[in-house]
Amino acid sequence: MPVFVCRNCFRPAELEFQIACEANQIPYRPLAIRESLRLLRDFYRERQAASPDDPRVAGVLADIERRLSIGAVERAPKLDA
Ligand SMILES: [Zn+2]
Fold first, then answer.
1. Distance from the CA of 70 to the center of ligand 1, in angstroms?
2. d(CA 64, CA 38)
3. 77 pLDDT higher than 90
4. Ligand 1 centroid vs 74 CA: distance in angstroms?
5. Could you tell me the residue ranges of all domains in the chain?
6. 57, 59, 56, 40: which is closest to 48 by C-alpha?
């Protein structure tokens, strides 16, 4: 079952998860970005079906779709960073 956390909580949550996995000898493998985005899209599609008039849900969903559509481009290294 996927667990979603916000960006602010991601690092501490990931660390906790890694420590818990190590303590229980469970191999830890982070999801690929695109796989995570697809799960997130499914999550927000369900939210949208539940509340179709919520503009926040529509906005987040549009952002996820955009990131999925340019995922291949984003993987290229940024030389001007
Ligand atoms: Zn949070």
1. 25
2. 8
3. no
4. 25
5. 1-30, 31-76
6. 57
Quote the CA–CA distance of 15 and 3 in Å, as a whole number. Answer: 14
**Ion ligand 1 residues within 5 Å by Cβ:** 6, 8-9
| Count of C-beta atoms within a 10 Å radius of residue 44 | 21
Per-residue confidence at 24, pLDDT binned at 50, 70, 90? very high
Residue 11 alpha carbon to ligand 1 centre in Å: 10
Report how far ligand 1's centroid is from the alpha carbon of 8 (Å). Answer: 5
Q: For residue range 35-46, list pLDDT tens digits in order.
A: 989 999 999 999
Q: Which two tokens stand for residue 35?
A: 């796989």
- Report the distance separating Cα 62 and Cα 68, nearest Å: 10
